[in-house]
Structure formats: C-alpha cells, structure tokens
Amino acid sequence: MLRAMKKSQRPYLRALRGFTLIELLVVLAIIGLLAGLVGPQVIKHLGESKTKTARLQIEELGSALDMYRLDVGRYPATDEGLTALIEKPANVAVWNGPYLRKKKVPLDPWNNSYHYVSPGEHGKYDVYTLGADNNEGGEGEDQDVVSWE
C-alpha cells in the first residue's frame, strides 16, 4: 500500500503513526524532574499555612478568653479549660457566652486539641499546640505554636 502512494503523501503518514518510545521516555523524564523540583516547595508551603492557621486560631481563642475575663472577672481555670468559652461553668454567676462564633472549641490544623493552662507559665494563660508530631519542640510543620510569642 505504501508503494502505491505517492512519495509526497508518505510524510503525512509518518505524522499519524504517533510518538516513539524514546520521545515518551524523554517527556516522562522532564515531568519527573519538574515534580521533583516543585513538589517539595508545595509541601513546604502547605506546612507553613497550617502553622499560620494555628497562630490565627490561638489569637481568636485569646480574644475570646479576654472577653470571658471582662464578663466573669477572671480567666477560666485549667480544669474548666477552653470549654468555658462555649458552655457556662457551674460556679460562674455572670456569663454572656458563648464567646466563640462556632459553638465548639476548634481543633488545631493537625486535628489535636489546643492545650490551655491558667495561670500560665508565660502569662495570665497559655494556649498552645504541639504541631504535627504532637510532641514538644520540633521544626517546620512539627514546631509548637504558642500564645506567648
């Protein structure tokens, strides 16, 4: 059939045949290199955004704690915890809550509860999260996010 065709039509048939194995391997190698360069940067920014979210949530909890103190005259005790911001404690006379927009205490971006201590070691209260590893210390996504810094 190819011999019956004119020589001017043969380049057209070559274009229809598709890609060679070498061409496909080169494209896959380029995609692999791009993924190797871009992937770590994307993951780095994802970890940073979770840390920023935790900082914002801790600031919001701090504002709610300050409003609670204005109404009640003190910060919630450690055993009352952050739950005092959404549910009236039994021993409180004046409570104008809930002090959070949503009627639940948020979890940190790693789905762990925030830690609350009052009186705190660093101020009137300490609110903190232990990061992705849920252990003290760490760097990057594993770093602790605290209310006193």
Characterization of this structure:
By secondary structure, the chain is mainly α. 40% of the residues lie in helices and 6% in strands. A three-stranded antiparallel beta sheet has the order 1-2-3, with helices on one face. The N and C termini lie far apart (79 Å).
What's a quick, concise take on this entry?
It is built from two helices and three strands, in the order ααβββ. The chain is mainly alpha-helical and 149 residues long.
Write the layout of secondary structure elements.
Elements (H helix, E strand, L loop, with lengths): L9 H7 L4 H52 L42 E3 L8 E4 L15 E2 L3
Antiparallel strand pairs: 1-2, 2-3
Q: Key features?
A:
mainly alpha, elongated, 149 residues, three-stranded antiparallel beta sheet
Largest sheet: 3 strands, antiparallel
Count of individual beta strands? 3
Which word captures the global form? elongated
Q: What is the averaged pLDDT score?
A: 81
Could you list the spans in which at least 5 consecutive residues all have pLDDT below 50?
none
Strand arrangement, major sheet: 1-2-3
Radius of gyration, in angstroms, nearest whole number:
29 Å
